[in-house]
Amino acid sequence: MPPPRGRRPVEPGQPAPPGRPHGRGRALYRRAREASAAHGQVRAEASALHNLAGLLAERGDLEGAVHTARQALQAARAAGEGLLVAHALHTLGYLLHRLDRLDEAEPAYVEAVGLLRRLDPALAASALGDLEALLADLDLVDAAEQTLAEAEAGVQPDERPALAAHRAHLDLALAQRARGRDRARLLARAAARIEEAAAGDQATMAVQLARRRLHQLGAEPADPR
Question: Whole-prediction pTM value?
Answer without folding.
Answer: 0.74
